Amino acid sequence: MQIMRVEEPRKLANVLLSVNVGWSHEPVGMRGISHFLEHSVFLGSGEHPEPDMDVGKYGVMLNGETQADRTIFFFSSLPEDAEDVLGILLSLVYHPLFPPEKVEEEKESKIIPAVVKESDFYPWELAYEWARNLIFGWDFRFSMGTKEELENMNIECLQEWHKRYYHSENSLLLVSQEVEIGSSPIPQGGLKPEPQRISYSQREMVVERGIENAEIVYAFPLKNYDLRAHLLSVIWGNYPTSLFWHEFHRKAYMVESRVEWHNSQGGFFFYVGANTKNAGEIRKMFNSFIEKMKISKEDLEIAKRILTLELLERERSPYGMEYLLNIDPKMRYGGFEELLNEFRNIEVNEIRDYASGIFDLEEIRVVIVR
């Protein structure tokens, strides 16, 4: 297992365990199993049949989250309790008991009710989700499975999925201090998951929701991970000094740019919450903005300050390690200080070259919800 210590200026121990399999890896017939398994491991192991009571003695709650390309388990504790709580977490994650009655109750009360419906999303969220579909080749509507597929899943399905992907070579442990893993054996070997790709024929789509304005997301695929993308998203971003905000704020009640990485693939997203349904006018402005974009040295220096503040704020957050994984999925830079040093060393010509290479209007994806 890859173990990385992340320095944090806090008097708490923060621990995050990532098992690198998520809902984007699930084939038809098994959709929803990652979320189902995430919940099921918390139902107890042979050593810890009542885990809530065991960690509760330390004042701790264990948490989990199913993401597109990983399932994460995390907690915060007093530093002197971290090794004991981590031992409990590792026992649950790698040696779950799958008690039949509890598993069935969890499926009926927590898993099936969590199945995604498009009506659950605000229009701007829906625009983002469909843009991600077009970029990453998945379908967010099946991220938590389907009722029919979940009803057919049993403990044997959970055990088989767990055996395939819950092992040392497919895991990453982030800790904020020196901790020992202890005696709980972690399975070796197993498989690495492959994403289940959907090939969408369209690159532009309109979703009718009967709203008075237009929620628009423009997206560009990113083939290779590059830290410069995050700095560029701040240069464009939703700040009074940002170029994208300056260009569109009179036509929109909200603008934003963001970068995401999933399954070794990336996407650069521009969001415009337009004050009009005239998406054609906004599109012309956007294309012109991309074609004429200019980045000055001052733009870069301001963005570095903004990103430095953001990183320092996130570093002090209980969710700082999850943020680290989002910005640096393979943990190439090791932590916040290393990231800050990398950002500080980026020159304006490097940002200009990168921007000119990734914003190809022939490759753009567009989603409009109106």
Key terms:
370 residues; alpha+beta; Cytochrome Bc1 Complex, Chain A, domain 1; five-stranded mixed β-sheet; 39% helix; 18% strand; globular
Please characterize this protein's 3D structure.
With 370 residues, the chain is of the alpha+beta class. It folds into 2 domains: 174 residues, Cytochrome Bc1 Complex, Chain A, domain 1; 166 residues, Metalloenzyme, LuxS/M16 peptidase-like (Cytochrome Bc1 Complex, Chain A, domain 1, 2-Layer Sandwich), CATH 3.30.830. Helices cover 39% and strands 18% of the residues. It contains 14 helices and 10 strands. A hairpin with a 2-residue loop joins strand 8 and strand 9. The longest helix is centred in the C-terminal third of the chain and has 19 residues. It starts with a strand and ends with a strand.
Could you provide a short overview of the structure?
The chain is an alpha+beta fold and 370 residues long.
Please write the CATH class name of the largest domain: Alpha Beta
Query: Would you count the extended β strands for me?
Result: 10
Task: Provide the gyration radius in Å.
Answer: 22 Å
Q: Structural class, please? A: alpha+beta
Shape verdict? globular
Share in helix: 25-40%
Instruction: Give the CATH topology of the largest domain.
Output: Cytochrome Bc1 Complex, Chain A, domain 1
Strand percent estimate: 15-25%
Tell me the distance between the termini.
Answer: 47 Å
Overall mean confidence score, pLDDT: 94
Order of helices and strands: EEHHEEHHHHHEEEHHEEHHHHHE
The total domain count is: 2
Q: What oligomeric state best describes the polypeptide chains here?
A: single chain
In the CATH hierarchy, the architecture of the largest domain is: 2-Layer Sandwich
